[in-house]
Amino acid sequence: MKGVKKYGSEGSISLYYHGMMTSTLPLTKTKTLDYYRKLGEDSIIKHFKEGYNLKKQIHISKLFCQVFAYRRKNNQKVSSDDHLMMCQALFVLLKTKVINNDELNGYLIMPNCRHKRKNHVFKH
Description:
The chain is an alpha+beta fold. The protein is 43% helix and 17% strand. The radius of gyration is 18 Å and the shape is globular.
């Protein structure tokens, strides 16, 4: 997939929906796994306040994930805001246990691999 890899200083988080990697987002000191989880939790609270019951929120999150995955599969453009909304929708589904974090759905954390350059001293 073109343009999906976004590595942060702490690595990256890859999002999966129905066995397809849909997004990769950076992990940094401030954008941690807890930060991305909180996007889903905050969404649930915000939409409750707006009058959406949990059943409706789950339906909207599923629909968004399906449309987003379809667009990624067909190489259609998606904005960076759409990637964050995908993250939000996926974490809503994980929080409500509609999906499990397993080999088909959820997320995978890839830590940043820092290669230390060894100074080789050549003796003659």
